[in-house]
């Protein structure tokens, strides 16, 4: 028998804030966390803006030795994971009320230790192999956020990492949900982390014509707007604690929301472009609804992938119409990437936090800087101003290069 799975802890590092409270309040109020690109040796790059974390001193959160041994992406993931565990009531150094072999970790990353790779390749070329950091390998690999969180919190259960580009965080939470639902685990720490604001990554995305080169901040990340010209690269992490419902209730945990469904499909079409009809994303949404035994008319809000690229926003709109029919014009949609930019493998975790908070508080965050309607993106994208709503059910969509689609369905906590 399928078990119920609930969200009991939230953690986030976002361009909109370094805590759930700060990031959510800014997102509700339409505060733009995107600003001038200052990292990655920005001089000479035709990219002007990024979603950078602000006022973050990792040594305020991690011991110096721990921080020194982790790439930036893993630092972000561990900090967000620590937040989520504390929010769920689990203290470092204290025994958890679970068999530790049934409490796992699944934190994804689309790229992994890019900061370390860039620095060490430069060192190798300039100074030779003997000067390469002996911790290069453990710092570079993409599973170390999961590994370090397990070490730190003494979690001996299922521990792995998913890399599905920009769907990594959402796949991680979805797979963690199924591990609990199907009885393999009782609790999971899951989400995504990324630190991609580097010269190499930006150069690669420029080559794909995927990032915007506009010099106007109010026209940079503009999902569903007819003048959209590419995404804004960002960094951060979003990690949540999932628990089996009865166990969470027994220990008196605060329950933010319930995960009622999860859908995952493949476009099987192209390395970088979404399949034009959006059929596979539509099927992922339908799978999530079917798993929850819900109809499209019962969904109040969709946190869209909404990257501000020409192909994604048009295709995602078509997918929603395919599943929802006329109901598509009644459901509220927004892209929080308009305020945070696109944090690649981390963004599914970050947007899961925003979607859970939307359900918990009954508030739909806006899509900011929306000015020019696009007839091909004609759904209600909650332009510029958020709004209160009775949200019983919400979806969070993620798409990744390689044709990966992942959809989470969150329900109001009973």
Q: Any key phrases for this structure?
A:
Ketoacyl_synth_C; Peroxisomal Thiolase, Chain A, domain 1; acyltransferase; fatty acid metabolism; 2 domains; 414 residues; 18% strand
Strand order of the largest sheet: 5-4-6-7-1-8-14-13-9-10
What is the H/E string? EHEEHHEHHHEHEHEHEHEHEHHEEEE
Quickly give the CATH architecture of the largest domain. Answer: 3-Layer(aba) Sandwich
Question: Sheet bearing the most strands, described?
Answer: 10 strands, mixed
Number of strand elements: 14
Mean pLDDT: 97
Sum this structure up briefly.
This protein has 414 residues and is α/β, with parallel strands linked by helices. 33% of the residues lie in helices and 18% in strands.
How would you characterize the overall build of this protein?
This protein has 414 residues and is of the alpha/beta class. It has two domains: 246 residues, Peroxisomal Thiolase, Chain A, domain 1 (3-Layer(aba) Sandwich); 151 residues, 3-Layer(aba) Sandwich (Peroxisomal Thiolase, Chain A, domain 1), CATH 3.40.47. The protein contains 13 helices and 14 strands. The strands form three sheets. Strands 5-4-6-7-1-8-14-13-9-10 form a ten-stranded mixed β-sheet, with helices on both faces. It has a two-stranded antiparallel ribbon with strand order 2-3. A two-stranded antiparallel sheet has the order 11-12. The chain is globular and about 65 Å long. The two termini are 20 Å apart. The model has no long low-confidence stretch (mean pLDDT 97). It comes from Christensenella tenuis. One of its GO terms (molecular function) is 3-oxoacyl-[acyl-carrier-protein] synthase activity. Keywords: Acyltransferase, Fatty acid biosynthesis, Fatty acid metabolism, Lipid biosynthesis, Lipid metabolism, Transferase. Belongs to the thiolase-like superfamily. Beta-ketoacyl-ACP synthases family.
């Amino acid at each position: 028998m399928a078990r119920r799975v609930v969200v009991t802890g939230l953690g986030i590092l976002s361009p909109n804030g370094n805590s759930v409270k700060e990031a959510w309040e800014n997102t509700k109020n339409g505060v733009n966390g995107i600003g001038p690109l200052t990292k990655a040796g920005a001089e000479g790059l035709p990219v002007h803006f990024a979603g950078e974390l602000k006022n973050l001193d990792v040594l305020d959160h991690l011991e110096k030795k721990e921080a020194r041994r982790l790439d930036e992406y893993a630092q972000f993931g561990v900090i967000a994971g620590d937040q989520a565990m504390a929010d769920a009531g689990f203290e470092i150094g204290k025994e958890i009320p679970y068999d530790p072999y049934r409490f796992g970790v699944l934190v994804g990353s689309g790229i992994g230790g890019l900061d370390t790779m860039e620095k060490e390749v430069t060192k190798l070329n300039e100074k030779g192999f003997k000067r390469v950091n002996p911790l290069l390998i453990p710092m570079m690999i993409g599973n170390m956020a999961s590994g370090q969180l397990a070490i730190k919190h003494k979690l001996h259960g299922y521990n792995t990492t998913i890399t599905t580009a920009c769907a990594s965080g959402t796949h991680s939470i979805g797979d963690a949900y199924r591990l609990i639902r199907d009885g393999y685990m009782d609790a999971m720490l899951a989400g995504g982390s990324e630190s991609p604001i580097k010269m190499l990554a930006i150069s690669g995305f420029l080559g794909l014509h995927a990032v915007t080169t506009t010099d106007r901040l109010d026209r940079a990340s503009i999902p569903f707007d007819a003048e959209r010209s590419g995404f804004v690269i960002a960094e951060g992490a979003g990690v949540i604690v999932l628990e089996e419902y009865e166990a969470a209730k027994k220990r008196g945990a605060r329950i933010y929301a319930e995960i009622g469904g999860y859908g995952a499909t493949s476009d099987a079409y192209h390395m970088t472009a979404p399949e034009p009809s959006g059929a596979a994303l539509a099927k992922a949404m339908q799978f999530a609804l079917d798993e929850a035994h819900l109809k499209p008319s019962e969904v109040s809000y969709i946190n869209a992938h909404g990257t501000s690229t020409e192909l994604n926003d048009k295709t995602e709109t078509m997918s929603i119409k395919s599943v929802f029919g006329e109901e598509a014009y009644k459901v509220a949609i927004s892209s929080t990437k308009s305020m945070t930019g696109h944090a690649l493998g981390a963004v599914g975790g970050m947007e899961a936090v925003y979607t859970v908070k939307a359900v918990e508080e009954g508030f739909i965050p806006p899509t900011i800087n929306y000015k020019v309607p696009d007839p091909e993106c004609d759904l209600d994208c909650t332009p510029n101003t958020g709004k209160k709503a009775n949200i019983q059910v919400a979806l969070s969509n993620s798409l990744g290069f390689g044709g990966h689609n992942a959809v989470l369905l969150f329900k109001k906590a009973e």
